[in-house]
Amino acid sequence: MRIKNLNLKNFRNYFSETIIFGSGLNVLYGKNAQGKTNCAEAVYYLCTGTSPRAKRDKQLIRRGEEYAEISAEAEGRYGGVEIYAKITENGREIRVNGNKITRNADILGNLFAVFFSPHELRLIQDGPDERRRFLNVSISQLSRPYYIALVRYNRILEQRNNLLKEKNLNTVYDLLPVWDEELCKYAATIARQRADFITRLAPVAAEFHSKLTDGAENLKVSPEKKYAGDEEELKKRLFNELSNNYDRDIRLGYTASGPHRDDIDIEIDGADAKLYASQGQTRTAALAIKLAEVEIFKELSGEYPVLVLDDVMSELDLPRRKKIAQLSGDRQTIITCTHAERALYGLETTKIKIEGGKVKR
Questions:
Q1: Average pLDDT, the chain
Q2: What is d(CA 70, CA 14) in angstroms, rounded to the nearest whole number?
Q3: Could you say which of 277, 301, 325 is where a domain stops?
Q4: What is the pTM of this model?
């Protein structure tokens, strides 16, 4: 898959600009705070319907304006696709090939992208929420049933947690099995697809990590819990787990087990990366996982996603910059950096200078 052009109007610091991308390595360069990351954010938004940085869509609107518009033309294995988003203070309108989209689930799967920025180090450093977010964003782009199951699971989970705070315990004990029957149906779908995704991801991430470290370190990625069996077996197992812990959940006032509490184990040379990895090891491990994610997208969807590397080069030494450039060069890649990197010399690139929210041609 490749993006042919990206159009921004009143988006962040852009007034009105069109960025034309090449099919291979694209380098958006310029000084800090000029708008390079905003381009990467716009691509991510058109892929997922969310921003990796803003909590509310209205934060994306250029200061003093009433709306923002983002659109892109892309080509994939099934032909062309046009995605358009208009964001206002009160909501948004999204169209795919001219057709209005009303559900976020219908945005996913039209334009694939894997996004990496310095914030992605949270995948290693922060709590389980960040690793679940990684899985949810990745798998949701590839599987609409997963995204729908995730949305419904979270709605039922909220209702179950509200029930646990009910003072009438007879009511609580009577209704919990009813909610759990529905909850576990969606939990089984989530658990099964996460397990499958991690199983595919782990060996590929280990291979990329070995390349980035010249074989000096070993990366191991594995699920915290082993979910074996088909969805019907998982549903029964998860239902029993919840049933056996009614008293605990009532005492806590929330549901303390299920996919919303799961984590991923990440180890470097047998040590827990979350606890013992240095800053450099953390960055390399996160990059390896993201590069592996690209390959899993190719395996499952039949085409490479757009790889977006936002401000990745600045924190790496020159040999690793060269490896990143070489590893990402056989598919469309968008790299943001402060200047045309030495690591890119000798490689065919499309260079795009960004200055003050404008493309300097």
A1: 90
A2: 11
A3: 301
A4: 0.90
